[in-house]
Structure formats: structure tokens, C-alpha cells
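Inputs:
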Amino acid sequence: MNDELSLLAIVIGVLHSGIRLATPYLYAALGETFSQRSGVLNLGVEGIMLVGAFTSFYTVLQTDSLLLGLLVAAVSGAIMGLIMAIVSVTLQAEQGISGIGLYLFGLGLSGLLFKQLLGTPTGLNGFSEWRVCVPGSESLCLGNIPILGEILFRHSPMVYGAFLLVPVSWWILMKTQWGLTIRAVGQNPTAADSLGINVAQVRYWCVIVGGILAGIAGASLSISLLNVFQEDMTNGLGFIAVALVYFGGWSPIGVMFGTLLFSTVNALQLWAQVLDLPIPSDVAVMLPYLLTVIALALPFNRGEKPASLTRPFERGK
Amino acid sequence: MSRMSRLFETLLPLWATLVALAIGALILLLMGADPVEGYTAMFTGAFGNKNGLADVLVKATPLLLVALGIAIAFRGGTINIGAEGQLIMGALVTAAVGVGLGESVGKWVGIGLCIAAGTLTGALYGAIPGYLKARLNVNEILSTIMLNQIAIQISYFMLRGAMLDPKQIEQGTNVPQSARLGRVYDLPRFTDIAKSLGYTESAKNLEIEGFRGELYGLLVEPTRAHTGLILAIVMAILVYVLLWRTTVGYRIRMVGQNAAAARYAGVNVAKYTTLSLALSGAFAGLAGAIEIVGLHHRMFEPEAVSAGYGFSGIVVALFGKLHPLGAIPAALLFGGLLVGGDKMQRAIQVPNVLVTVILGLVVLFVVSSEIIVKRRSARRVGVEKQTPLENPPLNPPRREGEKKEGKEAQP
């Protein structure tokens, strides 16, 4: 065992990584929450993330502008979302399968662009830690608060953005007219339609917003957390984000708690490997996935599934 | 309906694939490559010579078996994204049994035991999401995706531990792979069959030239082509019989089409949901078993063994219109596309992931084109649909354009 690391330092480390690792899941899962609340299961999140991760990475490499990279990720995510919306809303295709199609498309496209434009993995300087300090002072910073500050306030802006998005999404979905419309469309599109709501339009916007956030989720990996791009670098992360939406009961708050649970277990297994605990690394890597399956099977009440989820809407039916 | 339009509908997946290939050509152009040259390299690389053809058959085998499983699940009303994991688990256990047998039993008993073990493992691994869905209402798409990752980690755990090749330990390289299965348990290759039938002369010696020579070479000369394909085709016929000629198959399809009606008719829906996913897993597990005894002869990197067949198998199943017999030509076509992609990469330096892009587009176009069929059949029965048959609502919902119709229909 490592002597120089006290138990406290380990706990701080695990919780800090847990929050950090939650970032891509949060962006993707919150976006997917909008999509699913409107009745569309977008299983292509993984593919969108890969495209977002590459386009932002390449933009930053070329222009050195992180914000431009983020913007490009959002735009490419929106385009991928639009494709999904056309297929699943206008053309009323089976959503589970079309999502797999979008995943394969994104996986192939990001790999193709990577091989054609870069060829070999390189690194870049992504978003760095954002220090919130008292103006004019170097040491009076939130990140210097013992324990709590070290866990909560030593992150990149992408991390804060993800957590800020939780109350914002909750407020939009639960407290605004838009949110009510979205939920109505997901719950009973026929009734919403009869009230003059344009069901297809609402679903288009929700899937596109989901795409934008999935693109940003990809960017949060390639230009903030890892600062590299590799083929298939998301490695199932987007699919887990979809599962977290189910787990979180289609509520942004629930999704956040599910994500934190998942990412903290992930941080634990990473730290277990760093500390050389006698757990085989393969078993450790498996734990978060196993946990997700078990969590999905637990019979506690996790809120009502949008009644029209995966069901295309057709007038007069 | 005219014969022409029926033909158009039957061949929809083919049109979808052609559109996807056209977009692939556009991408090739954007990348500064000549699409004609690229697709020519793809086609001749896959179908133009005996080694290409052999590779196509080798890839078509797991594609077909996985697609059969996907089709069964689909017909039973579930979506199995977990073929990847089921295939890996099947391959892993096949290798474990094969290595464990040493050379203690005869050739056919050994191969039989290996394949049975792999198939059974796949079935059990498929039954997990089936049971979770049937009893605990867990979405099978999500659970199967998680189980894919779990299967990969289980494989690495075994391959780095109990199943690690003793030679790797000796040499100190510790590459995570199992020992080689006994050579007696190799599935016969085409060339072995030919030899036992007395054909040993090469095409060159017999002066058979051109494509006929390559075909002869495929059947007689040493290539990677093995008899797993024949088993897969037999399985396709058996699945057809199962689904359309037996009670079990009828019930699986009934549950898939209308679970509520099936329950009302006395069918145990939970049982048949679990069964269809277990069967689906069995075929993916069988694919993994065949990959081991027919091709790799040892277990190694699980992602390389599954090679994305779990996902490309979905494309094959869709292309075959979820019909077991339709999956046969589909598997050959997409086997060709996968092999051709590699050849194209070598010929004109275009990354072979272009094939993944095309596969994704095929899926998107095939599922999107379903609406054409739906619209057409709706038009055909349109006359009956316009008049509301049962209990028109007292206050019919107001919709632009439909308002008049609704009023006319009111008695």
C-alpha cells in the first residue's frame, strides 16, 4: 500500500474524480432526457459523441480556439441530431435500430476523418482548471477551501457547465411552458396534437438539442478531460448515458444522481488500480457496467416512463 | 398491386444499400479518391480471386449466424444489441472446453462438445436480458449493451488468468490469449473435404483459367474457407422451420406481433420473451464457437474475435428483411463489403472504416424506407380506413383538413 497517501487524500481524490468523470455522461444524458421526454429514444448518442469529439478536437488543433471547438462540436451534434429526427420523426423508423445505424455512421465517420486528417493520435492543451478567486488575490480561492473546495472547485469550466445544466434542464422541463409541451408530447401526442401542438416540431427540437449536448459531451472528452482523440474513444459511454436516463427516471435531478453514482464507482475502480489494491483490473473495469444492469433491475419507483417513448406519432391513428 | 411495385418493395433493402454506396462514392470523391477505382478494387478484391472469396465466406458465416439470432429476437418483439457479448462468451467457453479436452476424445465428439458448450453459453448469456425484461421490465437494449462490456472484461480476466497460454508465461510475454485447441478439433476446411474426396490437383495443374479457376481453387486448394458456412446455412433453414412450422415459433411471433393478444390467447408472454432472447443468444454463441473451431483455434482479444459482428449482423438481418433465408444472400453481400473494404484500403489508401459509414447508412435507409411500404399498404386499404368503424368520439379532435371528413362520417 501507498504510505504517503492518507485515507482522507484518497477519499478526496475519489470524489474529485467522480465529479470530473460525470461530465461527459451528464451532457449526453441530459440531452437524451429532452429527447426521450418528447418520445424519441435516440440510441445514436455514442455516434454523435464521437463526431463531436473529433470535430472539436480537430478545430482546436487547427485554430487553438477552445470555444470555437465547442461550437463546432455543438453544430456537428445538431446535424447528427437532425438526421436522427428526420429518420425517427418524419420517416417514423424503428428507433432502437435507427439509433444503431446512427452510431455506426458516427463511429465510421469520426474514424474516417481521423485517419484521413490526422492519422496518428496527438495531444493538445484543452480546458484547464478554472480558479475562482477573490479579485486581486492568489490564495483566496474556492479551490483552496479544505476538503470541500478541493473536491468541488478544482475543475475545468466544462465540468461546471455540466452541473449547471442540471438545474437549468430541470427548470425548463418542469417549470416552463416549453417543458410542459415537451412532456405532453411524450406522454400523449394525440392529445397534444388536438390542442394544436405541432408534435413533429417539438420532437425535432428535442432530438436536435439532445444531439447538440451529445456533441458537447464528446468535446468534453477530447478537449477537456482527456485532451486526445482516438478511434472509438467513447467506448460505450454514450450507451451508458442512455441507460442513465432510464435509471434517473427521466428527471434531470435523478439523472444527475445516477450519473454521480456511476462515475464515483468508476473513480473508485480507477483509484483501486492506482493504489494497487488486490482487485483484478478487468473485474474493476466491469463493475460500473454490472452496477448499471443491477440498478436497472432494482424495483424501486423511478418515475413514469414517457408513455409514447419509441412510438412514432401519426395523425389519425 | 402490380408485379413491378411488389418487386420494388421486396427489393427495398437493395435500393437502400445502393443509395448508401452512392453516398460512399461521394465521400470517396471528397477524399480525393476515384470512386470507380475504389469500388472496383472492393469488388474484385472480394469476389475476384479464391482468397478473397474464401474470406467472404469466412466472414459471412458469423454474420449469418448472428443475423439469425437477431431475426428471432426481432420476431419475438425484442431488440438484441448484445450479440457481440454473446458471441464473445460463446467463443471464450468454446476455447476453454477445447483446450480442456486436450486430445482426450475423438474429433467429432470433441468438435460437438466445443460447439454445444459455446452455443449453450450464448443462450444463457442471452437469457439474462430476456429474463430481466420479462420479469423485471428492464429495457433489453440497455442491458444487452452493458452485458457486451461485461463479456469483454470477463474474457480478459480469464485470458490473463486461468486460461492464459502456458507458452506466453514461458516466454514472459503474457499476451492475453488462450492455448491453441488440439488440431484434431479444427473444423474441416473446404480443402480437407476436397482431399478426402480425392481432388488434390491445383487449378494451375489442371489448366482451369479465369474465374472458373478461382472458384475451383476456392473449393480445392488450401484457403481459409471452412465448413462452418454449411452449418450456418443449415441453421438458417432450421430457423425458418422453427419460426413458421412449429408451435413454439408461432408463439414467439405471436408475442412479437401483439403481446396483449398473445397473453389473452393464453401464451406465457414472459416465457416466450425470455426464450426468444435465449435463442437469439444461442445463435450468437454458436457464431463465436464456429469462429474458434473453424478459424482462430484459440481465444484472444475479445473485440478482435467479435469484430463488430454483433452490429454488422443487425445490418444483415435487416437487409434479409428479418427472414432467415433472406439472411443468407445478405450475409454473403456484407461479408463481401467487409472484405472489399480491406482490399480497397490496400489498393487506393482509403481507410476501411468507410465500410462502417456505409453500414450505418444502410441501416438508416432500410429502417427509413419501411414507411414507403406502410404508406402503400395504407393507400390500398384506404377506403376502409376513411370511415370510422367503431364509436366515433363525441367531440372529434379538430384538425385542419380533416374537419369536414369527420363531420360527414358522423351518423
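Chain A touches chain B through 50 residues (CB under 8 Å). Flag for discussion at group meeting.
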